[in-house]
Amino acid sequence: MSCRTFTRVVATAVALTASTLIPPALADEPVKVKVFVGAMFEIGQNTGDRAGEFQHWYERYFSQSKPISVKGALNPVYCNDDGVCGSVLGMGKVASSSSVQAIILNPQFDMSEAYFIVSGVAGTPPERGTIADVSWATWLVDYDLGHRWAPEEGEPGAPTFMPRKGYEKVRLFQLNPDLVGWAMHLTGKTNLKDSDSARSYRMRYPQEAAQRTPAVKTGTHITGDTFFHGPGMSAQAQYIAKLYGADDYLITEMEAAGIAQVVQRTLGDRRFLSLRGAVNFDQGNPNETTLQHLDPAPGQTAGGFAETVDNIAAVGGRMVDHIVSHWSEWKNGVPPLPRQ
């Protein structure tokens, strides 16, 4: 064998060995993510059955996309050719935030310029919202970081919560006001779907806000692993929001503050949005107890779930489409809001 032939054989062998050692996903360029949409659960399949939090997003952006497996994430990630990616992250702060961290740190994705939309269903207090509302968060507040005690063990009528020192940087997140402003500018007048069952259910509540037709709103989203119910817990959520200097409590959910902490630590928080649709009130009407509201009789639920998850994707999709179609303006950060 000549020296030249030997060199060629060795080079070929090295190349073949390298190709077997380097996974294809790592050999390719990472996906340049422009917008990442995170849902918390899906009821069944991603398409073709009853829609949960992800199905409308999937059908809008990812129906032609192949799943990308990510170690440490609960479910695969889907990405389209426009740089929009999404995944079902899991319910609760731990499941969802651990999925997000695994996705952000995975070399298959370049998240350095990505905008995040945390998207899902939620509850709302009847004093401020109604079924099928869609809300962009102005603030995220962690409901769980503090001290609590039974009402009968404190002063009558006094709050039963006290913040715990040391959590100041992780219990409260103000979302970028310019980005939230853009979200309302682009989506605030979206025509939202409603249902006869939701219209009927609203009338059980005397509050004016509860009886209104659904709309796009902004306010504080309270994150708690406890699925709290009742006027007492609702009042406590508002107490905590005001104690921390946030806007009025509008949405109760289980993930956003945890995810925001992961995104803030790894990428910064200027490109982060929380989008929620209200599928229940956080308390019963005056004619039912809290336990009756928690465990309703057949036919006594709020209705409007299907319409709400559709509304969420319709509102959020306007934001996604605008960012992607104007990427040269959004790539380096949130552009100035247009003058009204």
Automatic annotation (TrEMBL):
First and last residue of the signal peptide: 1-27
Protein name per Swiss-Prot or TrEMBL: Purine nucleoside permease
Keyword flag Cell membrane: no
Matches recorded under PANTHER family: PURINE NUCLEOSIDE PERMEASE C285.05-RELATED
Highest taxon of the lineage: Bacteria
Matching SUPFAM superfamilies: Purine and uridine phosphorylases (SSF53167)
Keywords: Signal
Pfam families for this protein: NUP
InterPro entries: Nucleoside_phosphorylase_sf, Pur_nuclsid_perm
GO molecular function: catalytic activity
Biological process annotations from GO: nucleoside metabolic process; transmembrane transport
